[in-house]
């Protein structure tokens, strides 16, 4: 009888969104297949609380970041105690290099998930990625960055991020949305779902909106939190909008995204863009940047429009085009929902990662 596959996952994020949510989807799917999953995460992390009482065994382990050299020893100890078949490192912060070294010390093969498309120095990339039996990139755009830096292509695999579409297909009513966020019901409701940080491109959007007439009747709702909130609030005061709301981080986001007329994601760089998948699941048309993995989530003319990153004039034109064409918005939204079912399901993501494990362990 074949021994049940035993995996140890490392996720050092404190909050259950972005990459950590993908880990939760993965562990739920693997557990349903009978995999013995163990999770290392910081004490008090949301993902640890998510799996309390589940089939996943949680190991709280302190990790203070990339300089926490002691994390190598602590993780190696857990690996020796648990003796998993493989360790999957999901986070960059503290978990990638330190986790790879710990796995090597413990004699356990390691797989790394890479979710960002920022380049690293060539000399560093060529050494770092030798720590891992495979590096799983969440988009072809990320994989191409690694290849361009000399990382061995035979160790690179692409498994795209996923979205559980069902919650995003049951939105609140438009009246409920307008009451919740105090926006006029007859406005064109444009949303942004992103951290308030420089690379998400909020300032590019503001520049685009300044070129549009107030007669467009646009209400802009910005979801997310981050260090630029005060600065962005100050810089957006002169925008020719019907309404502007900074809605912060919302745990009930699936309730509201489907009420948007349009999602704009003007990021300057992005590994893939989970918020784009969520919007498509909710049948919302998208305008995004042609950078990183975003063209894999938004197919130009199918479920949205793509513009060059940082090009506020092109973004302005795209917003104007969709603002004036309700039929096109409906068509793009419907196609996005079909795209999610075909290519970005949680089942496909779980199967892709499972195939990588089987390849590394020779279980094919």
Automatic annotation (TrEMBL):
<protein>
    <submittedName>
        <fullName>Glycosyltransferase involved in cell wall bisynthesis</fullName>
    </submittedName>
</protein>
<dbReference type="Pfam" id="PF13692">
    <property type="entry name" value="Glyco_trans_1_4"/>
</dbReference>
<dbReference type="Pfam" id="PF13439">
    <property type="entry name" value="Glyco_transf_4"/>
</dbReference>
<feature type="domain" description="Glycosyltransferase subfamily 4-like N-terminal">
    <location>
        <begin position="18"/>
        <end position="166"/>
    </location>
</feature>
<dbReference type="GO" id="GO:0016757">
    <property type="term" value="F:glycosyltransferase activity"/>
</dbReference>
<dbReference type="InterPro" id="IPR050194">
    <property type="entry name" value="Glycosyltransferase_grp1"/>
</dbReference>
<keyword id="KW-0808">Transferase</keyword>
<dbReference type="InterPro" id="IPR028098">
    <property type="entry name" value="Glyco_trans_4-like_N"/>
</dbReference>
């Amino acid at each position: 009888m074949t021994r049940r596959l035993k995996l140890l996952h490392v996720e050092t994020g404190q909050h259950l969104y972005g990459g950590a949510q993908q880990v939760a989807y993965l562990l739920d799917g693997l557990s349903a297949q009978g995999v013995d999953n163990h999770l290392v995460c910081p004490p008090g992390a949301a993902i640890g609380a998510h799996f309390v009482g589940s089939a996943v065994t949680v190991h709280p382990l302190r990790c203070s970041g990339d300089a926490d050299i002691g994390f190598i020893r602590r993780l190696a100890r857990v690996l020796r105690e648990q003796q998993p078949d493989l360790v999957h490192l999901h986070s960059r912060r503290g978990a990638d290099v330190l986790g790879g070294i710990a796995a090597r010390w413990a004699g356990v093969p390691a797989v790394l998930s890479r979710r960002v498309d920022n380049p690293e120095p060539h000399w560093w990339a060529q050494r770092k990625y030798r720590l891992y039996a495979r590096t799983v990139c969440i988009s072809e755009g990320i994989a191409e960055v690694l290849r361009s830096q000399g990382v061995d292509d035979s160790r690179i695999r692409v498994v795209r991020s996923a979205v559980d579409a069902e919650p995003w297909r049951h939105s609140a009513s438009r009246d409920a949305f307008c009451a919740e966020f105090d926006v006029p019901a007859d406005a064109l409701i444009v949303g942004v779902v992103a951290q308030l940080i420089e690379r998400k491109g909020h300032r590019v959007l503001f520049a685009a909106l300044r070129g549009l007439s107030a007669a467009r009747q646009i209400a802009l709702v910005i979801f997310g939190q981050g260090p630029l909130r005060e600065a962005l609030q100050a810089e957006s005061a002169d925008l020719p909008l019907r309404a502007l709301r900074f809605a912060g981080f919302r745990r009930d986001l699936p309730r509201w995204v489907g009420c948007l007329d349009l999602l704009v994601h003007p990021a300057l760089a992005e590994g893939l863009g989970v918020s784009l998948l969520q919007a498509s699941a909710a049948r919302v048309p998208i305008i995004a940047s042609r950078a990183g993995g975003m063209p894999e989530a938004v197919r130009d003319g199918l479920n949205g429009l793509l513009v060059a990153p940082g090009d506020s004039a092109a973004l302005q034109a795209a917003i104007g085009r969709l603002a004036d064409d309700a039929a096109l918005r409906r068509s793009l939204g419907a196609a996005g929902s079909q795209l999610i079912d075909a290519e970005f399901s949680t089942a496909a993501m779980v199967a892709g990662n499972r195939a990588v494990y089987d390849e590394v362990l020779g279980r094919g």
